[in-house]
Amino acid sequence: MKYDPEHQLPTELLENIGISYLRSNLWLPVAGTKEEAVILIDDPSDYQRIMEIQGVVNARNYVFRVGLREHILQFPRGDEEVDIEEGFDDVFSTLDDQGGIEVDDSDDEEDEALAETSGIIQLVNRIITESDRLGASDIHIEPGKDNAPGGVRIRVDGICRELLKIPKEHCAALIARIKVISRLNIAEKRLPQDGKCKLKVRGKKLELRVATVPTVQGESAVLRILAAGSALPLDKLNLSPANHERVVEMSAHPHGLFLVVGPTGSGKTTTLHAVLGYINKPERKIWTAEDPVEITQPGLQQVQMLPKIDFTFATAMWAFLRADPDVILIGEMRDHETASIGVEASLTGHLVLSTLHTNSAPETITRLLDLGLDPVNFSDALLGVLAQRLMRTLCSKCKQPYKPDQKELDHLIDAYGREQFEELKIDTKTVELMGPVGCTDCGNTGYKGRTGIHELLRGTIELQAMIYKKAELSEIRKQALKDGMRTMKQDGIHKIFLGLSDYKQLLRVVSE
Predict the structure, then answer these.
(1) What's the rounded Cα separation, in Å, for the pair 499 and 481?
(2) Nearest of 408, 450, 414, 451 to residue 433 by alpha carbon
């Protein structure tokens, strides 16, 4: 079958299928109905693809026509990205009107059809739109136990909350739709799969990273929302004045190693891009290797890692060193090779920024020495280590001041350290703290948004000597505190006195 510009495509068969999915998989329903669908394909002997087509189109009979690749690509017209429609009144009533799926265990799986396609599309669209509006970072779609309904939970400000319940009979179709838009194999339900898709929500572009995992109750999916954003300015990171001054000082160095550490989702990339934004001037050539590239900035040369073809952080570092850099950002120092190239680069006249998954700034030094770095080179290269966490902040609309009793005040002062507390210059007699209340703006939680708490270890001469001798963690911590480092807990307590949060939220992210 050749391309015919006059040919009308069957809307009934195309309503639940993304154009980009059809283009990448090279097939297309060109005529027919759910009774008998006519499919145009470039290779009718591809059994795997035909199985997938049967799962997506769900017609009773199929007729296959063969077409050239370029002819198949000419048929579908439409945006490369899936366009999210804005909300609708009641998705579930739409699904019920279309007749839900009767799941009968005795029947073949083919009867478990995606009969409610257009309702399912609306449901997926609504879930993503609503999650984005509520400021979620992740969407969890989970099957229920036995015949119990499945659930959709979203993670907002680091805490999971339930968004809605989904009747058991619609769960499989919902996961199938998510697989279609993220170009995953919908016929494979036994293995975990990873994919991604680009969407438009209310005119704003979003990228979703999708992971599906088979569970004993059925498939589960997690969608990470990567809002394509621009860099935050350095002065908006809420660093304490002393830490801000030191970070600015370190970033002005022509060479050396500056690390930002913390667990996944603690805002390390945001901090590094804020530092890059601050030093991003025409006279400095900046290369970045990231996985994935989430924040883009003009003036930076940003590179996406592709481990499948062995394009790793280490490979990128070697390439950068031949590309005349002044500043190099390396996404993560997860192995000895990447870390040692980073140290070498910082010693040969480049400023190297990177991240690491460690719990505190002093621990980072012992971790890198355990990775097998040369203590002499490492001690010479290190400018500083910034450890951070994200602590939930009180809702600015409804938080209320209160006078803390002596017991609460003493507890906070002891947790900070009595001798050092004086440096905050807080009058304990008149001090007021803020407490959560709850309003419609914050979903009656009392908290909205998050702020960073930090500890900054500087590579002073004394500390360099200790790294060189491979000193114990406790000694490194003692020396860092002597050099003016304030721990994340101390920084958090300072921010509680500033009225940004409360002690309960600090304990959620900092243990010691």
Answers:
(1) 25
(2) 408
